[in-house]
Specification:
Radius of gyration: 17 Å
Order of helices and strands: EHHHHHEHEHEHEHEH
CATH superfamily of the largest domain: HAD superfamily/HAD-like
Structural class: alpha/beta
CATH class of the largest domain: Alpha Beta
Number of strands: 6
CATH topology of the largest domain: Rossmann fold
Helix content: 40-55%
Largest sheet: 6 strands, parallel
Strand order of the largest sheet: 3-2-1-4-5-6
């Protein structure tokens, strides 16, 4: 099954959160590095950075395996939870990425449903969503809602279900390779944005149908759907 054409107007758009709507990737990396250090697991920034955006348990398990360590489920859960606690302490004043608020407003004006689909735990989402200062509470599907987070498609499919839309007629916008893999698996149109953990080439290799440099590009497209003038540069 192919994904919808980029020129189509989708029935809905689902966004990743960290690195896509808010500038939090660096704090994510720092939180994982500290959590691994506390657990006595050797990890380098070069190993951790490409994993940002994946299910936290997968990150913990993969780094441990690279260090030659085998962990049971409770140990994996503990490291994932500790990383989240450290992230919450660091993420006190997250900054919305360019175009994040504007594209949300443009979608509302165009009458296109949208949601946030993030692997983050529920408690880690609030500060970042509040930083967007949206006019209304968005539909949010987080890692606590599904058994398998990204790169599995479960989060994205649940978001489409909550919006009552067909995944095939939905776009997913994210900054990581795991976002793109999840979108492909869900049958959504994968749009990579190079504002976070992966560059344009990596996003395309992971399945991105198109890559944009910032959400301002998407905002301009949505404004045209609503017949609104494009924002001034």
């Amino acid at each position: 099954m192919s994904t919808p054409l980029a020129t189509d107007r989708p029935d809905a758009v689902v966004f990743d959160l960290d690195g896509t709507l808010v500038d939090t990737v660096e704090h994510r990396i720092q939180a994982w590095m500290r959590a691994f250090e506390e657990a006595g697991i050797p990890a380098t920034r070069e190993e951790v950075s490409p994993l940002i955006g994946a299910d936290g348990k997968q990150v913990a398990r993969q780094i441990a395996e690279r260090a030659g360590l085998s962990m049971d489920e409770s140990a994996v859960e503990a490291i994932d939870q500790r990383s989240g606690e450290i992230f919450q302490a660091l993420n006190v004043d997250p900054r919305p990425l360019p175009g994040a608020r504007e594209v949300a407003d443009a979608l509302d004006r165009a009458g296109v449903a949208w949601a946030i689909g993030t692997s983050s735990r529920r408690a880690q989402v609030r500060s970042s969503v509040d930083a967007l200062r949206l006019d209304h509470e968005p539909t949010i599907v987080d890692g606590s809602h599904v058994k398998h987070a990204k790169p599995a498609p479960d989060l994205l499919l649940l978001a489409a279900d909550q919006l009552s839309v067909d995944p095939y007629r939905t776009w997913y916008v994210g900054d990581s390779t795991f976002d793109m893999r999840a979108a492909v698996a869900a049958g959504m149109h994968p749009i990579g944005v190079s504002t976070g953990s992966a560059d344009a080439e990596a996003l395309r290799r992971a399945g991105a149908a198109e890559v944009i440099e910032s959400l301002r590009e998407l905002e301009g497209r949505v404004r045209r759907w609503a017949g609104s003038p494009a924002p001034e540069a």
